[in-house]
Amino acid sequence: MLHYKNFTEAYYSLVSQTFEHNEFECSPRGQKVKENISVSFTISDPRNRLPYVEQREFSITYAIAESLWYLAGLDSTEWISNYSSFWSKISDDGKTANSAYGARIFKQNPKIASGRLNQWEYIKEELRRDPDSRRAVILIRTPDDAVDAKLDMPCTLSLQFFIRDNKLSLVSTMRSNDVILGLANDVPAFCLFQELMAFELGVELGSYIHTSNSMHVYDRHFPMCQRIKLTEPSLKEQWSVPALPPIRSAPPIEQLVRLEELTRSVLTVKGIEHLKNSAFDSLMQGADDYWRDWGLILLAHRAGKLGSEDFKQNILGSTTFEGYRRFSK
């Protein structure tokens, strides 16, 4: 088991190991990869979950949008493709994203116990009933996927929660992890799930543990791995995401989804300026700065889509968490 303080430290190490010290070279589905089998690592501070790796060009916009998409339980390919065209290329039916984890976690889903179970609520009930339980498992991939999924096969197998010494740990088990694309986005999202569960259960945050049965890198990303390998993480370039704020009822997910809908309907930069200056406060009324930052990042994305990079950077610069401001997109 590899141990790291934060995800940036882990990411540099895992890229180097996969690229330089791989066990295998193979070509699943005709795509050449370097691969290590059964890689496990631990992050002691799950709030320090963003990869501050300049050469990776991590998109904080996509990370926030994907997290919102998950928490809202959405599975629309069109919705998430607004933030990454990757999703439109792998949808099996052109409409639904099979790897929309939130739709399997936060809502009843026909692929999970025939639609009879909300897995998030089950975990909370199980751990409240028995804090020492070993049954607090969320399943992502199911046997249905072996039949129904051709292009979009979920990479995650399960998320298992443990309370030990009044701290909540999360063990994520992956069938497969692309170290450049998948890993960089999965860990921040799963650590967010872990923190939200700990918050709702009223326990402290423990370690994050990640196991990938296939940790690999595609040959198209070899040049990026080389660039990452030639740099070293700076301890100054790492920030822990602020702790979740007190939740009066629930995270303002519906407000953020509504804001996202409105930003997408705006067709001019002046419209985005008006939305930010006149409507944003009312839309996010009662929301803590933690969630308002998410809203600002969504606004910034739309400003960039409409061709105003300066206004986009201006909005990103107004977020309260300094760590977000270290990402340019």
Q: Uncertain spans, ≥5 residues at pLDDT below 50?
A: none
Mean pLDDT: 93
Largest sheet: 8 strands, mixed
Secondary-structure element pattern, one letter each:
EHEEHHHHHEHEEEHEHHHHH
Tell me the number of helical segments per DSSP (H or I, 4 or more residues long): 13
Share in β-strands: 15-25%
Find the structural class using helix and strand composition: alpha/beta
N- to C-terminal distance: 33 Å
Count of distinct strands: 8
Structure explained in plain terms:
The protein is of the alpha/beta class. The chain has helices spanning 7-20, 60-71, 77-81, 86-90, 101-105, 119-129, 143-148, 182-201, 222-229, 253-265, 269-283, 289-305, 309-316, and strands at residues 2-4, 24-26, 33-43, 137-139, 156-164, 167-174, 177-178, 204-218. Strands 1, 2, 3, 4, 5, 6, 7 and 8 form an eight-stranded mixed beta sheet that branches.
What are the SSEs and their pairings?
Layout: E1 2-4, H1 7-20, E2 24-26, E3 33-43, H2 60-71, H3 77-81, H4 86-90, H5 101-105, H6 119-129, E4 137-139, H7 143-148, E5 156-164, E6 167-174, E7 177-178, H8 182-201, E8 204-218, H9 222-229, H10 253-265, H11 269-283, H12 289-305, H13 309-316
Parallel strand pairs: 1-3, 6-8, 7-8
Antiparallel strand pairs: 2-3, 3-8, 4-5, 5-6
Helix pairs in contact: 1-9, 2-12, 10-11, 10-12, 11-12, 12-13
Name the features.
329 residues, alpha/beta, eight-stranded mixed beta sheet, 42% helix, globular
